[in-house]
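Job type: complex structure
Entries:
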Amino acid sequence: MTGGDKLPVLAFRAPHIAKARPRAANPRQLARAAEALRQATGTAPEPRPAPAPGPIPAAPEDSFSPVGIPRRRPGPAAAPPEIRRGGATGGTASDDGGPGARRILSLHLPRFAVERWRREALRRDEAPPDDLPFALALEGAQGPVIHAVNPAAQALGIAPGARLVDMRAICPELRAAFADPRGDKAALDRLMLWARRWCPWTAIDGTDALVMDVTGSDHLWGGEAAMLEEIAARLAGLGLTCRAAIAPTRGAAWALARFAPGLCAAEELATRTDPLPVAALRLDPATVRTLDRLGLSTIGALRAVPRLSLARRFRAGLPEADPLLRLDQLSGRMPEPVDSPDDPPRFAVQARLAEPVLDPLPHLPELTRALCAALAAEGFGARRLALALYRTDGEVAQAQAATSRPSRDPDHLLRLFDGRLDRLDPGFGFDLITLAALVAEALPDRQRRLDHAAEDADDLARLIDRLSARFGPQTLTRPLPAPSHIPERQVLWRPALHAVCRPFAPRLHRPLRLFEPPEEVQVLYAVPEGPPAQFLWRRQRLRVARFAGPERIAPEWWRDRPGTRLRDYFRIEDQTGRRFWLYREGLLGDGRGAEPRWFLHGAFA
Amino acid sequence: MPETEKHPRRDVPQQAEFPPNPPSAYVELGLATCFSFLRGASDAVDLAVQGWSLGYDALGVADLNTLAGVVRMHVAAKRVNVRPVIGARLALVTGETFLAYPTDRAAYGRLSALLSKAKMRDVEGRWQKKGVSDVTLDDLADHAEGLKLILVPPADLEGFEAALPRLARRLPALTHLAAAHLYRGDDRARINALERMARAVGLALMATNEVLYHAPERRPLQDVMTCIREGVSLAEAGPRLAPNAERHLKSPQTMQRLFAEWPQAIRATREIADACRFDLEELAYEYPREVVPEGRGPQDHLEKLTWEGAATRWPEGIPPATRAVLEKELAMIGRLDIARYFLTIHDIIRFARETAQPPILCQGRGSAANSAVCFVLGITAVDPAQHQLLFERFISEERREPPDIDVDFEHERREEVIQHIYAKYGRERAGLCATVIHYRPRSAIREVGKVMGLSEDVTGALAKTVWGHWGSGIAEENVREAGLDPTDPLLRKALLIAGQLVGMPRHLSQHVGGFILTEKPLTETVPIGNGAMADRSFIEWDKDDIDALGILKVDILALGMLTCIRKSLDLVAAHWDRREDLATIPREDPRVFDMLCRADSLGVFQVESRAQMNMLPRLRPRSFYDLVIQVAIVRPGPIQGDMVHPYLRRRAGEEAVEYPSPGHPHDPGELKSILGRTLGVPIFQEQAMKIAIDAARFSPAEANELRKAMATFRSRGTIALLQEKMVGRMVARGYDEDFATRCFEQIKGFGEYGFPESHAASFAHLVYVSSWLKCHFPGAFGAALLNSQPMGFYAPAQIVRDMREHGVEVRPVDVNMSEWDCTLEPVSSGGFAVRLGLRMIGGLASEVAARIVAARDAPYETPEDLKSRAGIGAAVVRRLAAADAMRSMFLDRRQALWEARSLRDAPDLPLFREARDEGAEVPVALPAMPVCEQVVADYQTLRLSLKAHPMTFLRKSLRAQGYASAADLARAGQGQRLKLAGLVLIRQKPGSAKGVCFITLEDETGVANLVVWPKVMAQFRRVVMQARLLVVEGYVQRDVEIVHFVAQRLEDRSDALTRLAPGGLVPPLSHADAVKNPVQGSARGSGAPANGHPRNARILPPSRDFH
């Protein structure tokens, strides 16, 4: 997890127990099969008994869970399915478990990309005023193409799909930046996980929307209306515009969220959706245009056409070209479950102590081992650990540690907390200790060497971890190559804990030690370009016995101040065999100052 | 397709003197020009001038795997009296790099053939990708005879020594090893090591500085180019950039100092340079032999053809005057030895006329085309004897340049001519010229900005301030105008470097139609590379390079109007049984001129643009020569020179025709002979030139310089100098200073978009022919226009509208009536109606239409019937239904679409043909489709509607709000204030109109011409650029028969169009709309017509880009 644009981080959660995902059946096929079955038998499906809450069944997940009923999910987050609608708002009496009884919330974020960019820019204090037209662009075949716009730009008629230069011509004050669709996707993923605070059955719907199966969750928020308010307020706090609707089906919720946001009870499904244009059926533009040309431009008009006629005319392979399928999905005739992906694995262990202890140390090895076992089971390694010690009086003491590469070695992880807990005030003792891997990365098992010798890189990583844990991550740095010809700019020092090690390109003729700053020396040389013959350094007079060079390094014109002079580097050896790296700054008559000056920049071993 | 606008070619300053240098001890042989794309950072002119001033007497040019830059280097070096040593830098696919210098013509041919092979076929022998050249060691060894090869060692010498003996064995031509002293720190050790290695395998050391730019100040540009090439920013480029600025051209003395320890390396350069005496001028041009029959001389043959042709043109005997002209011209052709040029063109034209089936219409133009010889050979249809177009005016004996004839062919069939040329002469002997695509200010600032880390906003703002023009760079006020700080150092550097990058070549592309044909394999003259398209290959040199070497070129151009004329003539022949061709159409028909005087010229060649239409009623053309003037006068040249109004006044008799005359003692009538034809006002390019020669006493050399300055608008310094010279001399000879200045202004205008009389005459002929067709056969002409789309100025909707206004009945597309093309159908009342063809339906393929027509032995009765009998897909039937093409089945659009939807693409097998399995069809009552929705759907599928104009549906509400229609406008009086509303057809902002924007609005009653003055434009810019339905308030301005509406307030009401139908209406804009299709800068005089095929160069007065 990198820093930067983070929508809210998930609250701490209990450890996840790994389990095989149920085989993904094509919900459409199954829905069709169920539909055919229902038509064949002429009865509505049996109301399904709600699955009992409680412990997870041994191996039920391999069989397909019933259509329309969310799969059960381990952990405490799964709301007991019996608890249906709590509030009175928008609820219906029918509670038969059929498709009509579901409540689906569609959450459309019409300006997600722009608003996310703006949030980022605000953080950097670079956001343009909201009333200036602004657009995000993607690189197209003929220059940048607009990807998303803010309301001010939209008001001026600037729409996605146009070329940025054309729009700049129309609207010279248009500001633009490049869009980051992958970043948007990742942010929407995070938002989806975060949105599970309202309802666990949350999934991504396209590039700018979420869909939630809020059946039974709304009472926790005081009813559906209150829930929508809460969602809108929270998202507004994040700077996101949203339009949301709750309806008995996913199709209806999608349509209403975009065309008439609000709540829609099961019995008013038809009256609410009939006036909407057919574009609300999630159809592609070509199909919408065909329907318009046929005079079937509203959902109501489409619904009035006999099914057979529609089926015969629109039997396209894709759902977005099949108005009948979409109509059935809207009306609930064709179930369309919310397929909510699993949470990413999270690792945390805890020790509840019967008696408060003053010294938590003896409990740590056990906790660390448990955590590492959980990590090993998932094939992960920890990058950041958080240890929380709960005092009996409610105070919480925290300690964090980080590793430079993923690790699940309990001894090593334990050592990172060495000495970190000494100065804690235990008060009347701790009675709960939790240890969590805040950041974990995949760490596949590797073949160890036969002699069990640890590999050098691992040793170095452990050393870095321990030293960083002991002295703070900023104290331990490592050199990284930087792209430059100027010797002192070729190395960047970065905290070792986070630096990704990159090898230095082999460079010949560089001294082992560089003087920072270079030391000025008095040099005797043949003007204009001759090598040094003798020089005075730290009050020693050194005679040049041998030399090589010059190596000419010109200033970096794009970042150096104007007037910066070039350097001619010489490798020299004095009469005693010591080798130095000298440079002359500038040339006589280069127009950038008077006499060139000489500096001693380094010493060879 | 990138704009093929020409970049003014840089040249060595004309004034400066460059005395030859004595032979220098050292010759730089590792010179890369900017044609080593994104490597070399200086052009030939800078390198040559710098080389001369450093004291070189010879310079070797070696671009990376190309000879594209050698002609420029040759020209520039010759100009400064430096001998160019022509060569190339060859990088093998395996990484070894050589400098290759041919010693003689044969070796040069081998080098060129080697590069051609590398550019046309990849290592495995497949079609090579554009811009890639794969040279292998084997190829090099096969072509190395006569080459001096110099091996360039890699930066890292590890393993080099081991590989050296193998290379030396494999390449006997390899004689030297290049050594460079580039201040890398270990240069001395490195050169010593190289010398040791070289000696071990019997090679010698040769000094070079591996020059990438002419002076150290160019290092920033070279760094930026490296970053562009590598796709990185400067901050992250690091070791990819050179550490210092040492790879500039150093003086021989400096090089001698650097190589003081290795004098033999310096001597080697001199020896190689002296051994390589090949000069590009040895590439003497040889005409293909096929054009002259065995045993005949070209002049003989041309004379024979000429007299034969003359006998056919004048069966009752050649008029004596014409005979004299012909004899004079033939004598001149003989003196200039250009008979084979005429024969080559005659051969190509004969293919189009006689061999191609059906014959392809074509017409020549250009300086030599308006000769009597060309007329009798059939190259042109303009009889020069009748129009006093004299050959000498177009060919100068002093210049000894090859004559210039461009031949236009029907745009749909030009490819046949090109393929014929390839087939006849072979790809080794015929090739298309290249066009060098240069960095333009906008692309330069964008690329430089990206590399330097400027944000998209900043580069976008900077790029926007550039008005698509060359040379000017980006001025400080532009930067300030863009809201940026011009004192910001990074920005300053970016602008400086972008200014240097402007005009650097970026890549080579294919020229629109310039062919060169040779006798010997062309690959031995110039490398041929592949284009991006399949089966396209072109040579590495552009038109100017060809000219510089005196190689002959034939322009094979495409002209949409010729297609249209041929189709019209075919229709006339088929339905009226009247066979005409370009030469036989009755001349000087007064009805045709009556029509043109009414500005009734929609669809007519050249004079259909709004500016031309405005000019027609003022100029009132009554004869062919008036058309020649009409075509030439609405051009930036005459407009900038303020020659238009004087001419009109004199023509209308409001002003006396007088000729400016010099003072005593010069001949007061000297201008009368020049300007007599144009009432004393210079209109054509040649007249302006002739004034310079006769009135300003320019010598032929000075005139030539002026001509070149006109052709390629050069640095302001040169222009100012020439202006001073010309105006000064004219004033000195007693001319009015004002007149002299205007003449020069006009020359400047021509410089950008010149229009010589010979071109004007050729074009005027097509104007007349197309007008004649429109006048006498409006239906046939309109149908042919529709069948030749895309071409011309107007969209099909306007063409159809114009036909209906001329009383032609236009019938809708119908699967039972229409062919692929628009056709003529007899009407019971006599005459013909136009039946729109299936080609009008967007997205329908011609093969499908052919199948529909072929299977139509009886009318199709249902969509099902159509699908099964014609054997077409259900999707096509749906497309036809959506286009409302099934009325003859008694199905309107909606019902047809409903029926067509139920069809499906099942395999055509007996089992599947049976009735359906889902059950009986239930009749569904679909709501009737309102007319407004019908019209919108018509526009969506056909881009036009015969049912109604979209504005009809808004008229009631508009009238209630007090809006006038276009018809009301025609009746309104001068200065009357009105409100108008209409669909936007064209928006134009011609460069010569000083920021005025012209908009053409259309409603159901006609069109209205809006004038938007710059102040109003600034205020309503967004509305002007975005609106499709425009609402205007303003007042009427009348002039002669022209009504303008001056806009004062504009409003975008495109939203009203969305209320017509659910999807909304997007009315089609005309091809010439300057907002949708910005015409940037545009090509100059020579070129094919406006906006047709993208390959056609444009000759419309360019409208400046709106950006």
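Summary: Residues 1-25, 41-100 of chain A have pLDDT under 50 and may be disordered. Chain A touches chain B through 59 residues (CB under 8 Å).
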